[in-house]
Design brief:
With about 475 residues, this protein is α/β, with parallel strands linked by helices. The chain is built from 15 helices and 20 strands.
Length: about 475
């Protein structure tokens, strides 16, 4: 039995917490057509998870309005995120065959429930990747990623000591909501989780307010990058690229970007956008040298700040590789350890890459007793807690970024020309080819940094955006 299947059985046995005020586990309208599918019978294209390392574009029912504050969007743009690869690989638990993926998307309001305020049919909007109620303790502070009322998954609650908000297209572990890598999407609490896009911000710029821009900004400001800091960033993907740019915006004197292997080309890509950037390729280090030793040579004492923009599922050494292969570890500590040993004493390390942990649980049946669940655990081995304590390193979990806290400010920065999301956009691709795009993005092929996914509802490319690339044979 796979980890995903076992985790689904655990959640079924223990039940939800009951805290959610919006419908849970509707990751595809086809799961209950009478309840979740649009009564017109219209279908749509959607990218679905079909099993570990397997996604497909399928025809599935268009979603229906099922709650008073629902909004149905015609999706005009979506993208693929590095976090989507964790779903592809089965690293995030409680995926089910047929789940519609995608947590970053924008679109036009097609219809809405009677309780929605502040929106009109036809409005251009971008969605936050998290689903917030707007009224709970966290939402009142715009800490939308920790909403108390949109995710009642008990497994997550037991693993983490609380729940995150519900998230689009990101497994039943985060509430079980259909994602936006589709032609239509249902947005719960639509008047809270949609931001209007003005006419001077095209979809190719506004789309990325949904996640990557807010996540990068949160990583930088939450870790406390300030004037004069030297910042080292692990991972040269879109998050790493935007963290580099935003570190300079927040006063960093130097930024060093680290990557290697199949992603080495990304170092040159990002440097072409940020000429003052310094780079470090971990696959071309001199014999006997490490990332830590090289950084100590580049900066006396090491960087002031380290930012993790990779994630915990990618082992670098054989030890962690085999531990993960055999199920003894779910998230490698290698990059976090490199960060801790690389920064100056009393330095700051921020983690924004996804670290999930796993459920190591057993359901046992007893006579005259209901099924019982042993406590869940997460596992990361060989964590260098000694260096953390002895050298006074600040290790900061940046958390799922609270998009609502930042997206209005970031939108204004785009409008003022301070921030240009087109700098990371490398490809415009077709909705019907998204399964192929996933595999190319996974393998870091075709110099694919960040994509814009075009649907039948999309406008033509804006000035400065790439044209369509098709992968049809």
């Amino acid at each position: 039995m796979s980890m995903a299947q076992a985790a689904n059985l655990v959640e079924k046995a223990i039940g939800h917490t009951g805290a959610a005020t919006t419908e849970q586990n509707l990751t595809n309208p086809a799961r209950d057509r009478a309840k979740y599918a649009d009564p017109s019978g219209e279908t749509m294209k959607a990218l679905c998870w079909m099993g570990k390392n397997h996604v497909e574009v399928v025809e599935t029912p268009k979603p229906a309005l099922i709650e008073d504050r629902d909004v149905i969007l015609k999706v005009t743009g979506s993208t693929v995120c590095g976090s989507d690869l964790h779903l592809l690989h089965g690293s995030v638990i409680q995926m089910q065959k047929g789940d519609i993926l995608g947590h970053e998307f924008c679109g036009k309001v097609e219809s809405m429930g009677p309780g929605v305020t502040g929106l009109n049919v036809g409005d251009r909007v971008v969605a936050s990747f998290q689903i917030a109620c707007g009224d709970c303790m966290y939402c009142k502070q715009k800490l939308s990623s920790q909403c108390e009322r949109t995710n009642s998954n008990k497994t997550e609650n037991m693993m983490y000591g609380g729940n995150t908000a519900g998230m689009f297209g990101y497994s039943h572990f985060t509430g079980g909501f259909a994602g936006g890598q589709a032609e239509y999407v249902r947005v719960p609490y639509g008047d809270v989780n949609l931001l209007k896009l003005p006419d001077d911000v095209p979809d190719e710029k506004g789309l990325y307010l949904s996640d990557v821009l807010a996540t990068s900004w949160n990583c930088v400001v939450d870790t406390g990058v300030k004037d004069g800091d030297v910042v080292a960033i692990w991972g040269a993907g879109p998050i790493g690229q935007m963290c580099a740019e935003m570190s300079f915006m927040n006063g960093a004197a130097r930024v060093i970007l680290i990557d290697g292997g199949p992603g080495s080309w990304r170092l040159d890509f990002v440097k072409s956008k940020l000429p003052k950037l310094e780079t470090l390729n971990y696959t071309s280090l001199p014999k006997g040298e490490s990332v830590t030793s090289q950084l100590k040579q580049m900066v006396h004492g090491g960087p002031d700040v380290a930012l993790e923009c990779v994630a915990g599922e990618y082992a670098k050494g054989w030890g962690h590789y085999f531990e993960m292969l055999l199920g003894f570890e779910t998230d490698t500590s290698e990059i976090v350890n490199e960060m801790i040993t690389s920064v100056k004493s009393f330095g700051r390390c921020g983690i924004t890459g996804v670290y999930v942990g796993y459920v190591s649980s057993q359901i046992t049946s007893q006579k005259q007793a209901s099924p019982r669940l042993t406590p869940p655990t997460q596992q990361t081995n060989h964590f260098n807690i000694g260096a953390l304590m002895e050298r006074g390193i600040r290790l900061i979990g940046n958390g799922q970024a609270p998009v609502h806290l930042y997206w209005e400010k970031l939108l204004q920065m785009i409008r003022d020309g301070e921030l240009n999301p087109l700098s990371m956009l490398s490809h415009r691709v077709l909705m019907e080819e998204m399964d192929t795009v996933y595999y190319k993005f996974e393998k870091k092929e075709d110099n694919m940094q960040k994509v814009f996914v075009q649907t039948k509802f999309s406008d033509p490319p804006c000035p400065g955006a790439p044209g369509v690339t098709s992968y049809k044979s």
